Amino acid sequence: MSQFDSATKISAGQALTAEDIAAAGLRASDDVARYALRLADDSLVLAQQLAGWISRAPELEEDIALGNISLDLLGHARSFYTYAGTAWGKSEDDLAYFRDETEYTSAHLVEVANGDFGQTIARQLLFSLYAVHLYDELQRSTDETLAVIAAKAVKEVEYHVDHAWQWTMRLGMGTEESARRMQAGLDIVWAYVEELFEDDDLIDALDGIAVRPSTLREPVMATLERAITESELTVPTTPAAVTGGRRGIHREHLGFVLAEMQVLTRKHPGATW
């Protein structure tokens, strides 16, 4: 795709791929790149986690569903990484495969281990409801590239919300064992939801460009509580965990996720297939 075609897609608000961003010759500022990087990190880490269910899900259809959600998240990550990389002369692969754990800025929620299926669905419910509100607001960013990426992403995340919500209801209103596992999963991941709503200096510097996380807390929590109560489960009272993901301080599981994801590329840098 030519630079002209890519720029036309941006101005028309059409779906934008990583290839479009690269072809358009766009350049993000350092602060915008840092913001795009944290959005990309969230999506990539969760995509890698969900990919771990392929061939292991409780139903064949779930192998496909979780694989598709993983691919959606990977697509979001690619677009954000490509845009972030324009500020520093780096490719999406550079940012995904050749940064160490402390250089990642992912939220702790996406780093929580898959656990059993109930825990994975609980994590997915929390993140998807956060993401759908985030991208809905980001569509109105004054940064056109971020806005166009978000406009495509929000449509896909709406499906992620529906998938997680339906499974929450199915498990919560199913057998005694399924409800127990779903509740246990919610109780574990609930400790990490508050980090999603933390503001910081980067957000302050991007007024009108970034979505202020604290503004998402009320709508996200209200929807979460409705999903949980409709599923005949109990809204957790788990205390909030210590945060730090945006500052490069991570949960213990992230290192294992990155090691698995990065090992082949690091062993054979520059290889193509």
UniProtKB/TrEMBL annotation:
Stored InterPro entries: Aromatic_CoA_ox/epox, Ferritin-like, Ferritin-like_SF, PaaA_PaaC, PaaC
Protein name: Phenylacetate-CoA oxygenase subunit PaaI
Alphabetized SUPFAM superfamilies for the sequence: Ferritin-like (SSF47240)
Organism, scientific name: Mobilicoccus caccae
Lineage of producing organism: Bacteria, Bacillati, Actinomycetota, Actinomycetes, Micrococcales
Gene3D superfamilies: 1.20.1260.10
Top-level division of the source organism's lineage: Bacteria
Pfam families (UniProt xref): PaaA_PaaC
